[in-house]
Design goal:
The chain is of the alpha/beta class. About 20% of the residues lie in helices and about 35% in strands. InterPro entries: Anthracycline_SecMetBiosynth, Glyas_Bleomycin-R_OHBP_Dase, Glyas_Fos-R_dOase_dom, Glyoxalase_6, VOC_core.
Length: about 450
């Protein structure tokens, strides 16, 4: 009702009467807004309520100017169907939000929800990603608000993400630059692997139990390795002191590293000799010759058929025939004294990639350093570093305390080339033994 000049207007009506069934002729139910519009509006309001302090979503008020300390940003109103938000959800801070969004969508299967909110200075102030049946928020660093991305090795929060195939997602994350800090394992009826993404955030990728603890070895995996050294007796003393290696009666095999590892003497410079698994030994020999190498058939100490070979850059290696029951090594073994990563330094990375791609079916992707490459889905993990003065394989040996191990290196007559440093996967130090063989010590997170 309304009045004019103190007189009651008999025909004045409530301006919202059309929304009430009783006042709307021909309508039996209250007028409801369009369902898509209602969902969009609800989502827009929910998103606006969670923006960082000082950020206003434009379009929510038509007659109110922003305060001088507030920034108006545009936001797309086109949204996907609402995803339930829990009472508490992760809000990640990353140094490079655009790259992070690409990584999470391509590697972890996330779906970008709406368009990121971009600040006047170009930084992403807010983005939403749907994954694992829920949603996470993401933004750039805002140092003035105390919001910074994690520092290497200083993760304080872990995110648990349900996945359909733990092994496949862990492998994909590793190929995309994540550090695998724990290989997939079975526990409590699930299979879980742990990675730290390139932006410093730790993910526990959990899927259904698949009883995949025992996996058949793949072509191209390193099934056996041996430390090639000028003096085997000196090497045994050194590595027993530094890594706690124990040996068989002949002193040629390490018995407590968790994988097949030996020591043998060489007239050449020290390196790590590798024997790779293949399905067809005759075919592998033919590919070695076709790729510019050469090799001879023989047998190993345990009676396996092998080809002792030399690649097209003069590096010795071997291939051996896979037998039933051969199990696959871990990608990153964690047993003290085990080799968890191998860096192959080479003068010509293109030739190396072509040769081993042809012989072992290796595929590779670019790594984080110039002329650096990572071999896809090989165990233990192998990286290639081009532009070296000579070819040499440098292993990373696992230790439970890098600082203490560095002290043992010095006490045993070795050299610490690079002091311990923290990386996303753990703490490492570059060293050389008392005969000049380079290696890394790795304390994995």
């Amino acid at each position: 009702m309304s009045t004019r000049n103190g007189t009651r207007s008999s025909d004045a009506r409530d301006p919202l009467h059309v929304l009430r069934a009783a006042d709307a002729p021909g309508f039996d139910e209250p007028v409801m807004p369009d369902a898509a519009f209602a969902a969009s509006l609800r989502d827009r309001l929910e998103r606006g309520a969670t923006l960082p302090q000082g950020v206003i979503m434009s379009g929510t008020a038509t007659d109110t100017a922003p305060r001088s300390d507030e920034t108006v940003v545009e936001s797309d109103t086109t949204t996907s169907p609402p995803v339930e938000r829990p009472g508490a959800l992760p809000y990640l801070v990353v140094a490079d939000p655009r790259r992070a969004i690409d990584w999470y969508t391509s590697t972890l299967g996330a779906v970008l929800r709406g368009e990121p909110i971009v600040m006047d200075d170009g930084r992403i102030g807010h983005a939403e990603l749907e994954m694992g049946g829920g949603v996470i928020y993401l933004a750039a660093e805002f140092p003035d608000l105390g919001l910074r991305a994690p520092e290497p090795g200083k993760v304080s929060v872990s995110l648990m993400l349900p996945v359909a195939d733990t092994d496949a997602v862990v492998a994909a994350a590793a190929r995309a630059g994540a550090a695998v800090t724990r290989e997939p394992y079975e526990a409590h009826g699930t299979r879980t692997g742990v990675v730290v993404d390139p932006f410093g955030h730790r993910w526990m990728l959990t899927g259904p139990s698949g009883n995949k603890v025992v996996d058949a070895i793949h072509q191209g995996d390193i099934g056996y390795m041996a430390l090639s050294t000028p003096d085997a007796a000196r090497a045994r003393r050194f590595y027993a002191t530094v890594l706690g290696w124990e040996f068989d009666a002949d002193g040629r095999r390490v018995t407590n590293a968790g994988h097949r590892l030996g020591i043998h003497e060489t007239d050449g410079p020290p390196t790590l000799f590798c024997a790779y698994a293949v399905h067809d030994l005759e075919a592998a020999h033919a590919r070695i010759v076709a790729a510019g190498g050469h090799g001879e058939f023989g047998s190993s100490q345990d009676g396996r058929r092998v080809v002792d070979a030399v690649d097209d850059q003069g590096v010795r290696f071997a291939v051996y025939q896979i037998e039933p029951g051969d199990t696959r090594p871990e990608q990153h073994p964690r047993t003290r004294g085990a080799m968890t990563y191998l860096t192959v330094h080479t003068p010509d990375s293109a030739r190396l990639r072509d040769f081993y791609g042809s012989v072992l079916d290796w595929t590779l992707h670019a790594g984080r350093i110039e002329d650096g490459w990572e071999v896809d889905d090989v165990r233990p993990q192998v990286g290639i570093a081009g532009g070296a003065d000579r070819s040499v394989a440098v292993p990373m040996w696992v230790t439970d305390d890098v600082e203490a191990a560095v002290g043992r290196v010095r006490a045993a007559g070795g050299t610490v080339l690079d002091e311990p440093r923290t990386a996303p996967y753990g703490v490492s130090a570059r060293c050389a033994d008392d005969q000049g063989a380079e290696f890394y010590l790795g304390q994995l997170f």
